[in-house]
């Protein structure tokens, strides 16, 4: 503990001889008792000293000209910092009871009468000096205790924060482990089905019907694998901010009505009561990504609602927002899970029926896509078995419907001539056969240089170009085709396994008209070929 400052004693007396006598008498004990002695010749000087120092006791003469002892005592005790300083009045006459009362009312603790008896003075002063030293010691202990308490509180907060962070990391690691185990399960199921179906096709004695069923299984499970890969890539792109939105004014209720019609047409909602109440509202958004949000919310409702349950989809406008809500009568969300339903790698109870599959990352993707649109998503549930409601809010825009454009006419050919530039032999063969089966005249090339020669020789209407070609890549193929007057009018569609925003930018800068990410869905490919055949070539 730091060394304590010596207590101070103040002697106040207007008589110089009396002041000298008292201070000298006190000084002879100062070193022994460990105190300092200060003096003041008037009440005003005493107040100045009190402003500068703390005193263990003040010896105050009663009879002083100008400001007497009582007035000086009152002024000292009127100040909060010096209100508790004990004052011993010194007087030359024996005070009567009224004088004593007046002195005590002004803060006196005792009286000394002149001539002062040294032994009595020493006894009284010693008590107040010891008391002051004890008080100062207690104050220092209190300061040390307060400092230690502050340090302990800070340490406790730090430890609490570390424990919370460690629990969060452990929870995330556990969730990731479960996610990876689930991912392995989701990948092995379709791969096992594909492997079994491929083996079945090669067995002797398999009926034609069995071969057809095996082919359908391979096709269906391949699409399922593609959806899993798409989910993973979309989430990765969304979390890293690399999704590039193709935004345009669109009427949200129309898009949602089309999505719901797809669910009904494909039979995915057959076992449920699917209600809709859609009010119009315009937003500036990417139709593909908004349909993805809607589908994920509806898929989530279907997954966690038992057959026979009700799913309600509503849209309306509210202030500056267009609002979409998807409500269900399903298993609900517990209070513990509710704040985390949009976190990555978080799912509901693993005991739920997961027959429909999926990775459980759809809601994380929904939140990120909503944020990229400048909107928000919220979840509500009254608890287990109480159903849930997800509410999407997007900024509303004012939009005037434009006059319908004239219907574009098809080119002179019935179907466009297609050039496929693909280095993977199996992929090239399969796509050539598939396009041929749809009635397209298809030429193919195995690398970029062969593709350039084929384009000049056959003059196709449209070229499907793989980006990762040997020799010169697809970007260079596009640039050379656009630079040659003989081939500059060919529509160019990029086929690539890369789907990040930067990849799309490079594709469009190279001169392509469209960008498709492998594996390409045949219906999507037909739509792209048809749309490219209907519009003028990009300049």
UniProtKB/TrEMBL annotation:
This chain belongs to which protein, by name? histidine kinase
Gene Ontology CC terms: plasma membrane
Q: Which UniProt keywords apply?
A: Coiled coil, Kinase, Phosphoprotein, Transferase
- Give the domain of life: Bacteria
Q: Which stretch is the leader sequence?
A: none
What is a GO molecular function of this protein?
phosphorelay sensor kinase activity
- EC number of this enzyme: 2.7.13.3
- Where does the record say this protein resides? Cell inner membrane
> InterPro entries in the record, alphabetically?
CheY-like_superfamily, HATPase_C_sf, HATPase_dom, His_kinase_dom, HisK_dim/P_dom, HisK_dim/P_sf, Sig_transdc_His_kin-like_C, Sig_transdc_resp-reg_receiver
Query: Which sequence positions carry the modification called 4-aspartylphosphate?
Result: 61, 466
**Catalysis: reaction(s):** ATP + protein L-histidine = ADP + protein N-phospho-L-histidine
* Coiled-coil features, chain-numbered ranges: 128-155
């Amino acid at each position: 503990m730091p060394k304590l400052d010596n207590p101070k004693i103040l002697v106040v007396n207007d008589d110089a001889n009396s002041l000298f006598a008292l201070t000298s008498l006190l000084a002879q004990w100062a070193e022994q008792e460990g105190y300092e002695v200060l003096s003041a010749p008037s009440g005003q000087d005493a107040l100045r000293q009190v402003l500068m120092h703390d005193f263990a006791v003040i010896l105050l003469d009663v009879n002083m000209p100008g400001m007497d002892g009582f007035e000086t005592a009152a002024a000292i005790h009127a100040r909060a910092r010096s209100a508790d300083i004990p004052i011993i009045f010194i007087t030359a006459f024996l005070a009567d009871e009224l004088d004593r009362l007046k002195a005590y009312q002004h803060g006196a603790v005792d009286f000394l009468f002149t001539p002062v008896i040294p032994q009595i003075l020493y006894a009284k002063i010693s008590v107040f000096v010891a008391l002051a030293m004890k008080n100062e010691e207690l104050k220092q202990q209190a300061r040390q205790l307060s400092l230690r308490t502050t340090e302990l509180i800070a340490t406790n907060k730090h430890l609490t924060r570390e424990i919370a962070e460690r629990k969060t990391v452990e929870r995330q690691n556990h969730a990731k482990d479960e996610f990876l185990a689930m991912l392995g399960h989701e990948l092995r199921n379709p791969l096992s089905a594909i492997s079994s179906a491929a083996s079945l096709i090669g067995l002797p004695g398999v009926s034609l019907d069995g071969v057809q069923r095996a082919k359908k299984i391979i096709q269906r499970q391949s699409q399922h694998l593609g959806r899993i890969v798409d989910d993973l890539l979309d989430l990765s792109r969304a979390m890293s901010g690399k999704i590039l939105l193709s935004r345009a004014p669109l009427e949200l209720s129309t898009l949602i009505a089309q999505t719901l019609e797809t669910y009904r047409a494909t039979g995915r909602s057959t076992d449920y009561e699917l209600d809709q109440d859609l009010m119009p509202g315009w937003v500036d958004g990417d139709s593909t990504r908004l349909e993805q949000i809607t589908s994920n919310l509806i898929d989530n409702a279907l997954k966690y609602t038992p057959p026979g349950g009700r799913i309600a989809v509503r849209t309306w406008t509210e202030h500056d927002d267009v609002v979409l809500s998807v409500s269900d009568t399903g298993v609900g969300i517990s209070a513990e899970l509710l704040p985390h339903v949009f976190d990555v790698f978080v799912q509901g109870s693993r005991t739920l029926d997961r027959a429909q599959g999926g990775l459980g990352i759809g809601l994380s993707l929904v939140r990120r896509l909503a944020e990229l649109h400048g909107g928000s998503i919220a979840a509500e549930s009254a608890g287990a078995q109480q159903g849930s409601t997800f509410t999407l809010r997007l900024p509303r825009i004012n939009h005037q419907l434009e006059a319908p454009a004239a219907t574009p006419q098809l080119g002179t050919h019935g179907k466009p001539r297609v050039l496929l530039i693909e280095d993977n032999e199996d992929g090239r063969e399969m796509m050539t056969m598939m396009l041929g089966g749809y009635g397209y005249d298809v030429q193919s090339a195995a690398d970029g240089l062969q593709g350039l020669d084929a384009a000049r020789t056959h003059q196709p209407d449209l070229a499907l170009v793989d980006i990762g070609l040997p020799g010169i890549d697809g970007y260079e193929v596009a640039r050379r085709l656009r630079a040659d007057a003989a081939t500059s009018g060919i529509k160019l569609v990029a086929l690539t396994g890369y789907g990040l925003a930067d990849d799309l930018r490079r594709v469009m800068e190279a001169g392509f008209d469209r960008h498709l990410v492998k594996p390409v869905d045949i219906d999507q490919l037909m739509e792209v070929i048809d749309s490219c055949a209907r519009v003028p070539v990009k300049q």
